[in-house]
Amino acid sequence: MNIMSRGRTILLDKRFELTLQRLAHQLIENYGDFSNTCIIGVQERGVLLAERLIELLEIELGHRNLEYGKLDITFYRDDFRTRKNPLKASSTEIDFLIEAKRVILIDDVLYTGRTIQSALAALQDFGRPEQVELLCLVDRRFNRHLPIQADYVGITIDALDEAYVKVEWKEQNSKDRILLFPAK
Predict the structure, then answer these.
(1) What's the CATH code of the domain at 152?
(2) In a domain, 6, yes or no
């Protein structure tokens, strides 16, 4: 039996969609018409979440063009040079400055905080934002290495061990779901 067959489903289909809708509505409550605000998805998995949220936001806001970018953090990672296998870089697609803007940084899972630390460093190449808030679908709050926390959280998973959380998207798989796998 492989590790993928031992995963426990944490969130599936309808509750997954409701969680995305709740996050979108929280953003609308706090950002209104999204003036002077941009959304940045962290490559690769944060981009999938960001694009789904943007779709929901545009429906709710009447098909506005939200300022959106994709951020690759590969060369900002603190383990970039220490990994056995080379990392595969994705593209950064931000065609605007974030100078004095409110930035909503989006990633799928907040685990140790190192990805977000790298994303914050990478964002500096695009200006100095007025504010950065973090949205994540899953918060693994007991496994943090750095003092980083999300402002918007879809679901919190309190696994104390080295369990693995996987978010599957219907665009890549047949359904939306969040799985928890035991430590190896």
Answers:
(1) 3.40.50.2020
(2) no
Would residue 184 count as lying in a domain?
no
Question: From CA 15, how far away is CA 24, in angstroms rounded?
Answer: 14
Instruction: Indicate the number of domains in the chain.
Output: 1
**Which residues lie across from 119 on neighbouring strands?**
none
Q: Which domain holds residue 111?
A: 38-162
pLDDT in tens, 19-77: 999 999 999 999 998 999 999 999 989 999 999 999 999 999 886 789 999 999 988 87
Global pTM? 0.90
In a domain, 113, yes or no: yes
